[in-house]
User: What shape does this take?
Amino acid sequence: MRTANLTKVFLILGLGVLLAGCGDTFRNITEPNDVEVPDDDPRVRQSTVWDLFDNNQDPNTAVAVNKYLWDASLDVLNFMPVQTADPFSGVIVMGYGTPPGGSRAYRATVFVRDPALDARSLSISLQTRSGPASIETVRAIEDAIMTRARQLRLEDSRL
Assistant: This one.
């Protein structure tokens, strides 16, 4: 009987906290120096619990990866079959493929994590069938992708 009462108390407290979160306590005022603004001013927007479920992102700006690094990765690693590619998260997973003139098969996972055309925005995991590829090989692939990304950006700037 005692655990039933304790459960009811926690349920009531939880509902009270949830209800308090829907209150008018916090406002997002965009005025400098915390100037008081009337509640009916359109610059004041009250946030509620329901804002969590709104999709207010512009679909044209939701992708946060560098398009030049993305395209350059696909160009440089074109000898590998693409298994999955998600431009929204910036991940490209490629299957095993043998480079032209090579004898060893590689597979790669490319992660473009930032919209900046920068080496820190690119992360590559390269494997052979016998284990991880050498650091020199990974670095050479990264350099080739960065060089190709710069070339693509220059081609776009000439248009």
Helices lie at 2-21, 67-76, 135-157. Residues 2-53 form one domain. Residues 135-157 form the longest helix (23 residues).
